[in-house]
Amino acid sequence: MKIGIIGAGQIGGTLTRRLTKLGHEVCVANSRGPASLADLAKETGAKPVSIRQAAQAGEVVVVTIPEAKIPNLPKDLFAGVADDVVVIDTGNYYPRQRDGRIADIEAGLAESRWVEHQLGRPVVKVFNNIYTQHLLERGRPAGSRGRIALPVAGDDA
Ligand SMILES: NC(=O)c1ccc[n+]([C@@H]2O[C@H](COP(=O)([O-])OP(=O)(O)OC[C@H]3O[C@@H](n4cnc5c(N)ncnc54)[C@H](OP(=O)(O)O)[C@@H]3O)[C@@H](O)[C@H]2O)c1
Known about the structure:
By secondary structure, the chain is α/β, with parallel strands linked by helices.
């Protein structure tokens, strides 16, 4: 598949490594621009791109940046992106340690709904409840013992 990844940190970098290894075509972006992703591109064969190019790049687009940074993404990031492109949210809300308090979430809005409002786009939540190192190292082929199940949550069939 063609996959865009916005965020190239612990989870974005891990997904870039794992998904390219599985043969997917990955375009990856961060806040500092493609030049800063040269090492990851060399290591994985992923294409370093701008965030707008990453949003347009795939059948699936993964948004994997700290929750508090989501509002910094352009409001029209997904304008013109086909409705059947699945947007994945890996985010977790850490008000004390990282994100500060986000009023709507504090008032009871589910955090992925808040992300949807920010992006103007439905999201499917996945990869948010596995530690990055385990995502990198503990994948096992179907049929083997000790596989890890990951929940996928969304209301897009
Ligand atoms: N780490 C884990 O084990 C883990 C597990 C499950 C879920 N999560 C969640 O997944 C999300 C990502 O976590 P992480 O640990 O991968 O974060 P991280 O290592 O801090 O990486 C954050 C990435 O987001 C990019 N970024 C920040 N603002 C951006 C913007 N405005 N536009 C484009 N890129 C931007 C950063 O790019 P620059 O470096 O260029 O700024 C960096 O590549 C968080 O919500 C986290 O809670 C993390």
